[in-house]
Amino acid sequence: MNIIKNRIKIIDWYIISKYLGTFIYTLSVFVVIIVIFDLSEKLDDFLGNNLSFWQVITLYYAGSIPFYVNMLSPLINFIAVIFFTAKMADQTEIVPILSGGVSFNRFLAPYFMSAFIIFSFNLASNLYILPYTNQIKNNFENTYMKKDDPASKQNIHMKLDDHTYIYMESFDNRSKSGYRFSLDNFDGDILRKKLVADNIKWDSVKRSWKLTNYSIRNVNGLKETFVSGASLTKDTVLDMRPDDFSVFDNIYENLSNRDLSTKIKKERFRGSGIMNDLLYEQYKRWLQPLSAFVLTLIGVALSSRKVRGGVGLPLGIGIFLSFAYIVVNQFAKMFTLKGGIPPLISVLIPTIFFGILGLYLLKKAPK
């Protein structure tokens, strides 16, 4: 503790308190505004589903507010840095600091200390909080807001392991039921077992699948045995879950890190076409919090010079760059999901692009 006190000076505490105070205040204001607009937009849906105020709070906003905080954090971080740094420059607080023998790199230290706090919070949120709050939010949206959207997936082919392949004519995500199910088990190129069922339904209590009106054909060379389960049911354990057949595009946000890693391992041999979505979600959780450092660097370099007109010009440039960051991030995401760019490159593109911009602005900043 004494080491920290000796290394962190009064000016450091001043900048850190300004940084984090402005960040928290601005983020709170933006979240309140978004919640108000979101509530006004979805009020008819809430009333149409006869949801009480407590249900809306616990089933929706308990999950959506953490999502909004995480989504806005990089941009509010950027705007907060520009606002209070430009204000310091306008009040001629930065010139005495640099004139007193403090290098610009040393001046940046408290900014990066604050950025590290925000980075740590965002990383912990991405890894341990958002997967569970997103599940609350997305389950509510899929149940109440998207209840009229198609909930079934058609003509499903999937490889469960090196020997087992399944097919379903359709799967309904709301009833967790599949229709016209078949399972083929091979030994090399030789069919060893074929199971057919009219219906397959997920049992969330037993964590298994229930087959209805099924038949099993076992093949051993020229010998075959046939088991008929007409009008009967059979419980079976298969290496698949209902979310493997989800039609909702927000399903991957709900997965914990362990479940996400497991799903990626399974997808490597299943080849169902969702690998880029899974990898993008995994890389995003780990790498997007780095934007706190990049945007802090740009903000300080951009707003540390005193300009005529006060904080208006730096703040305007900051808002423009914030929108540019959103655009670059969304384009990079679409290119990896639709255009074939590797997910790792896609996640890093905004950080690299704005990092280069930050280094250029740092070079031009007053020393």
Structural account:
It is a single chain. With 367 residues, this protein is α+β, with helices and mostly antiparallel strands. The protein contains ten helices and six strands; from the N terminus they run αααααββββββααααα. A six-stranded antiparallel beta sheet has the order 1-2-3-4-5-6, with no helix packed on it. A hairpin with a 4-residue loop joins β1 and β2. The model has no long low-confidence stretch (mean pLDDT 87).
Radius of gyration (CA) equals: 27 Å
Number of distinct beta strands: 6
Largest sheet: 6 strands, antiparallel
Give the count of helical stretches.
10
- Ends distance: 31 Å
Order of helices and strands: HHHHHEEEEEEHHHHH
Low-confidence stretches: none
Strand order of the largest sheet: 1-2-3-4-5-6
**Count of spatially separate domains:** 2
Secondary structure class reads alpha+beta
Helix content: 55-70%
Question: What does the average pLDDT come to?
Answer: 87
> How much beta, percentage-wise?
15-25%
Molecular shape = elongated
